[in-house]
Amino acid sequence: MKLYSATIPADALKVRSKTSYYARQKNLFVMLVIVISLTPLLVISWTSSHFYRQSWQKQTSLSLASLAESRKEVIDLFLSSQEDILSSLVALHSKAELEKPGALNKVFAAINSSKVIIDLGVIDESGRHLAYVGPFKQKLLDKNYGASPWFSEAMKNGRYISDVFEGFRGVPHFVVAVASPDRSWLLRATVNSELFNKLLESAEVGPGGDAYLVNIGGEFQTPSRLGLTALPKAEQAMLMQAGEGGDVHAWQNSLYATARLNNGAWLLVLKTDIDTSLKEFYQARNRDFVIIICAALIILVVSTVLIRTMVNQIEKADGQRIGLLNRIRQAEKMGLVGRLAAGVAHEINNPLQIIGDQAGWIDELLDDDRERQLENLKEYRNAAGKIRDQVKRASAITHRLLGFSRKESGRGLVDLNKLLDETVSFLENEARKHRILIRKNFSEIGQVFSDGAQLQQVILNILNNAIDAVGEDGAITVSTGRTADRLTIEFADTGPGLSGDDLKRIFDPFFTTKEKEKGTGLGLSISYSIMQRLGGEILARNGETGGSVFTVVLPAGKSTDTKSLPRGDISKGLCNE
Ligand code: ADP
Description:
This protein is an alpha+beta fold. Helices cover 51% and strands 17% of the residues. The model is unreliable at 1-6 and 559-577 (pLDDT under 50).
């Protein structure tokens, strides 16, 4: 039979598991904060860094291309001016004139005021020196250039600029040669490499960059700034291919600008190392990353602390709300049961009275009619006895039911320790019979303004239950204590304790696990409603080392007016700890 229909939905009383629900909420909020706060930071930092690198690369490509173009023009101009000077000399002078002693010296001095040319030679059609001016006179004067590639090219084409070679002098150099129109002789000048190389030295290619000339075979015509003596094969292949287009190429973390010069015989290469050039940018970017990570950590720590505090408060508030709802629910239940119990007890008491009287009357009649009814007398007496026993049990129940609605018998100052002493003494014999020790562990708690008789009923009920639970051989420890605002009596037994299910229903009317003759299931529910009336509370839990622990809590109000005693903050919940 369902006695009570709750006005508070059971869902509202669901206690959320700490480890799952609230921990999940905390983690979820922290993750959300991290994602929301960090995503824009990271996106901004990544896009700006990407954008910066792109625009740097574009800018650098443009300036590298224009630098290559300007250097190519300067070098081409330099070479062609050397050619032009020699061409003018060949046109102005005959072989015979230049062969005369001292004539070539004069010409050399006239054209070489800027020291661009190291030496000058007049060579006849067979490759023999006719005249020479320069520092290698001893070494070169008797040499024949008939088999030298530059000589044949010059004789063939009329003019020629060679690649860098060591030649008879054994020093790397290159020559400019111009032949006479009838190819009977030629003028050859050796270019000052130091001055020539300077044409490239001024090219700004940044740290880790390089600027050099290579011939079509990939051999260096000017020194590499990085000290390279030969180009790696892959780089050479890339350059030769890139040289055709003349654009800027990105290759292996470097930018290359190329330009063909000397009629396509040489390739000018300007190279910038991207990472080295961007070093400062990378340093600034890394600083930004460190700042972002620090900011992220601060956000993480602050938000974690805030979220934890918030969720803990929500959890606490939820706990308080559930505790309050539980108390309201139990109070509603008790109020209803109290009214129902009073009605039922009143209605049943009268018929029980009559049945009991009639059983007594039957007994009396049987005494008178003994002779006639002798055969069934024993049966009749048995039946009348059974009726009386059941009436007794029924009236015990109705009597207890009245406990729900019983008005107070009267309040006064109660010495709780003394009341406990007295109540324990009622049950000591019973306990001894079952070898159960009742230990008293009382503190100095003074007196409380309450209803002694009703408190005693509660204590008796809890002690009786404890003796039943322990059965044989065990102990019950009764302790008292006091805090600023409450008095407590604790009953800890060595019985089997309470299962989770029992713990939920233990204060429900008619909930019992005892045999039919022994239990009515009303003791704890009545005790609960008594404690509520007294402004206190009764709590049940399992002990840390086993057994059950029942705690009776009373407000320790100083005032004798119990209505002013604090009722709300006595306990956090009901019994489901
Ligand atoms: P009754 O004693 O008539 O069964 P109560 O309301 O006093 O009714 O008790 C209800 C039930 O609570 C008991 O049947 C028992 O299952 C359980 N109970 C009460 N006290 C204890 C205890 N100390 N140890 C274990 N179970 C207990």
